[in-house]
Amino acid sequence: MDSLRLVAGVVYMVLAVILTPPYARIVYIFLSRKKYRDLECYRIMSQTGIVQLATAPTAFFSGFLQLSGIDVLGLAGGFLQVLFSASVSVEIQLNLCLALNRLKVIGEYKKLGLVCMILMVLSWLYGAVYIAFLLTPLCRFYEVPGQFIGRFDFDAPYTWLLVTIDSYVLLGYIVATFFVYVFITSCLIRLRRRRAYEKTSSKLSYSDGTIMWSEW
C-alpha cells in the first residue's frame, strides 16, 4: 500500500468518526426544538445537514476501502458513492432555497416562501430520481482502491446523458444562487442607506426643534 492511500484512508475514517456526532447533534437540536422548527431558515439548514450527514458513511467506508482494499458488501464502491454524488446535487439545490429564504426575510417578499417550498420538494425528488438512475445498469458511479473520489462509468449507456443533465441543472442553481445573493447585498446596502438617511433626518429635526425652542 502506498503512503497516499494510507493517509487518505486514515483521514477519511477519522473525519467521519470525529465530525459526525457533533454535527448530528446540531441537526438534532434544529429539528427537536420548536423555536428552530418554526423558522423556515432552520428547517432548510436541517435538511442540508441531513444531506451532509448522509455522506459520512461514504467517507468512513471509502477510507476502509483505501486501507484494506475490501469493499464491505459493495457499499463503498457502489451505493454509498451514489448516495454521496446525489447528496452533493441536493445540497446545491437546497442552497438556493436558503438564499431565497434570506431574500424573503430581508426584502420582505412573502411570496418567496411558496417558491422555497416547491424548490425543496423538487430537490428531494431530483435526488431520488438521480439515485434510482445510478442504481440501474443504465448509469454507474463507483470507486476503487487507489481512486480517492468516485467517478462515473461512461461505458454505461446513459451515464453521459445523466452527467450532462446534472451539470446543466447544478450550473443553473449555482448561477441563480449567486444572483440571489447579489440582490440580497443590494437590498442590505439600500436598507443601510435608508436608515442612515432616517437617522440624519431625525437629528436635523431635533436640532431645528431645539433652535426654535431656544429662540422662543
UniProtKB/TrEMBL annotation:
Membrane spanning stretches: 6-28, 49-67, 79-100, 112-135, 168-189
Keyword match Transmembrane helix: yes
Keywords: Membrane, Transmembrane, Transmembrane helix
Name the UniProt record assigns to this protein: 7TM GPCR serpentine receptor class x (Srx) domain-containing protein
